[in-house]
Amino acid sequence: MSRARATAAFLAAVALLLAGCAQSVDPIERLGRKAADGVRPHGPAGEQAYRHWGLSAPLPAAPRPPSHPLSFRSALPPVVDHIPTADRVVFLTYDDGAEKDPRFVDMVRELRLPVTMFLTDSVVGPGYGHFARLQAVGASVQNHTLDHPAMPGLPYAGQRAEICGQQEKLKSRFGIRPYLFRPPYGTYDTTTLRAAADCGVTAVVLWRAAMTADTLAFRNGEKQLRPGDIVLVGPDEAMGPALRERTARLLRRVQAGGLTVGRLEDYL
Ligand SMILES: [Zn+2]
After folding, report:
1. Distance in Å, CA 191 to ligand 1 centroid
2. 96 Cα: distance to centroid of ligand 1 (angstroms)
3. What is the CA(187)–ligand 1 centre distance, in A?
4. Residues flanking ion ligand 1, Cβ below 5 Å
5. Do 192 and 183 contact (CB within 8 A), yes or no?
6. Residue 192's closest CA among 251, 144, 252, 133?
7. How far is the CA of 185 from the centre of ligand 1 (A)?
8. 63 CA to middle of ligand 1, Å?
9. Rounded to the nearest whole angstrom, what is the distance from the C-alpha of residue 235 to the centroid of ligand 1?
10. Which among 44, 148, 231, 243 counts the fewest CB atoms within 10 Å?
């Protein structure tokens, strides 16, 4: 063998070895690197992600959202628990901000879940950094009051302080002005709606279905997921399965219903 050939053979062997090393890297890690490099995490690595999170198939891409969000002709913000749409999407929402699992940030990034977080200042406490990381991977952040009181019956000034105060907090923490509001416990009165409107809220968001520790509970109507349903993944409790496990369970239900996950803010 000539010297040149021997060198070529050696280089080929090294290349093979390097390729082997690259393949032995954890697929999720590779996905993370691709995403960090600005490459959309499609392809084999992206397909590994759904298995990693306990799904049997990738989540289908959401259909193109409406070019104009819904418009409501009312003086007070509308109260919605679902979006009237034929698009086969449901919306994943999370309340309070108690659970701050870094693995949940990975899940949102790797599955590219367009989730909405309704945050309460006193619950998040010093943990806003976690939600900034979630926001950086595509989650959106909306208002769930400063201190989580039951709103009905509270005077206007108190309700306004709870809502406007959290608007200001979220604006200073995230550089955004939220426009969706979820009242604590899903309860409100007309004073809540007036105060919300005066704080710049354009829609009050409830939920039609809630993912509890062990089941999907419906507040009204048909007892199965329908296009446009807003789902609360809760509750934020230390007991029971972790948020990411509750989310995986919900995603399996979503897929079984031939649905996928849409971005609420595209529709409201
Ligand atoms: Zn809450």
Report:
1. 19
2. 5
3. 10
4. 95-96, 184
5. yes
6. 144
7. 6
8. 30
9. 8
10. 44
Task: Please identify which residue in the block is written with the tokens 């919900």.
Answer: 250
Taking a C-beta distance cutoff of 8 angstroms, is the pair 145, 120 a contact?
Answer: yes
254, burial (CB in 10 Å: exposed 0-12, middle 13-18, buried 19+): buried
Q: What residue ranges define each of the domains in the chain, with the CATH number in brackets?
A: 3-51 (no CATH), 53-267 (3.20.20.370)
How far apart CA 243 and CA 142 sit, in angstroms, is 18
Expressed in angstroms and rounded, the spacing between residue 150 Cα and the centre of ligand 1 is: 10
End-to-end alpha-carbon separation of the chain, Å? 71
Q: What is the pLDDT of residue 56?
A: 86
pLDDT below 70 — which residues of the chain?
A: 1-47, 235-239
Largest Cα–Cα distance of the chain, in whole Å? 91
Bridge partner residues of 174 (DSSP): none
Using the mean position of ligand 1's atoms as its centre, give its distance from the Cα of residue 262 in Å: 22
Cβ-contact 110, 134 below 8 angstroms:
no
What is the rounded distance in angstroms from the CA atom of residue 169 to the CA atom of residue 146? 8
Helix (H) or strand (E) holding 14: helix 3-24
Q: 136 C-alpha vs ligand 1 centroid, how far in Å?
A: 23
Per residue in 50-94, pLDDT (tens digit) is 888 889 888 888 888 887 777 777 789 999 999 999 999 999 999
- Alpha-carbon distance 133 to 140, whole Å? 11
Helices then strands, counting H and E runs in the chain, come out as: 10, 10
CA 104 / ligand 1 centre spacing (Å)? 19
